Input
Amino acid sequence: MGPRRGDAVARGVKKVKGKKKSASAINAELSVDQLLAKTQELMDDNSYDKALMFAAKAIELEENNTQALLLAAIIQLESGEVEPAINCLVRCTEISPDRGFEKYMYLGQFALELEAVRYFQLGVDAMQRDLDDLAQSSAEQAATLKRKMAEAYVAMTEIYLTDCCFEADAEKKCEEYLQRGLLIDPDCPEIYQTMASVRLSQERADDARECVAKSMSLWANKDPNDPSQIPSYENRLALVRLLLELNDKETALGLLEQLQKEDDESVDAWYLFGWTYHLQSEDNVASSVDTNGSDKTELLRSARECFKQAIKLADMFGYDNDGLIEHARELVAAIDVDVPPSAEDDDDGEEDNGRSANPATAVGGAESDDFASDDNDDDVEMGS
Output
């Protein structure tokens, strides 16, 4: 869905104004700067309804204030009101087309295919202007801008790798954007991770492994509690999938352990834990590691517990990836045929709070040295 222009912009701003009727009752003596400061303060406190009131008041006073429009858009995106948010963002581009990269980054996320690429490129161009204006003493600000530019090139590459993969110049564009990203920020791990995906699409698995190793070397020893030091949670989940494509299950399990400690209610992480154990069980059959099949049995039990936890969390939180959960249900049913569940299986891995324990302690999932934590959890083993 591309951004809408014209009268829709006015409708979007009107919706911002009308979100709360009490917006007009805000102290009329507050300046626009004070209103925006209050808006940001409320956003930081996750008080989005109240924040929208102050942003709307600022727009009433200065309808062409791009900061007010941007904040209103961000608030509405957080509240799931995509169309009025897009209208505000488009209005920002009309008022200030050359400055303010944030609006283009948001529009790129909600546009499709080549239109999304266009928005990301406009955002990169705006960031380059900001970079050119920075004093040499602003090294930290420059580094932040360069990282955002590199990440924008990653987003553009991924569009040509997926939605626009049938474009005649798709492969050329992927290489072009990756090289631009490397030039602007050679230490961006997302660049190398995306390059690995491109190499896999080119059936160059060894080169893909080198790219993954390079990507992980840039952050594996950084502080996992500092989001500025490591890739995002979603990015690392994507890395797990990439590792599984490269048949590196042990590294995938180590990374999943770290992700599970950060968020033990991630449906995707639990599903990937289960899928990794399931793949390991198939390896055991192929290699005949254990003639009595006990290793395979334990791996399948661990896989089942992880899949069941993913299904449970999906039901709790209204998870919207029906295909993934349906696959998890199918795998649980298949495992039940090979390894009929017992009362022990039903109780296994359950904590007093009803959540499963750390699956990294299950069969085949010993803690990886690269991702080991100092935490000394009393987690119960799954699948034992």
About this structure: The CA atoms of residues 259 and 319 lie 18 Å apart. The domain at 1-96 is CATH 1.25.40.10 (Serine Threonine Protein Phosphatase 5, Tetratricopeptide repeat). The chain has 17 helices and no strands. The two ends are 49 Å apart (CA to CA).
